[in-house]
Design a protein that fits this description.
This is Branched-chain amino acid transporter. The chain is built from four helices and no strands. It is mostly helical. It folds into two domains: 34 residues; 66 residues, no CATH class.
Amino acid sequence: MDTPLVWQSVLGISLMVVIAYGSRVLGLLIMSNVPLGPRVRRFVDAMSSSVLIAVITPMIVHGDGGVRLAAIAAGAVAVGFRSPLASIAVGMMCAALWRLWLA
């Protein structure tokens, strides 16, 4: 591997670590000074779902049938049983079986 490419990779990974850690620390520092009223609490509670949807949606749109089957099955289990662990397990199992049998 070319030496400048290695250093560029190390620099890129280091910057991502600093940005990720910095955003968490700054988030904690900022939120420690914000009073948690009902509107702020609803906003914070909705953020995790929004981020999850933003990460998963492109995978579902551009993915294969296994991804779509896993998303539908995991969503149905999440709604039916309200268990994140069961939802993740069913989604992973569906994607794995799709790829085992159809890929």
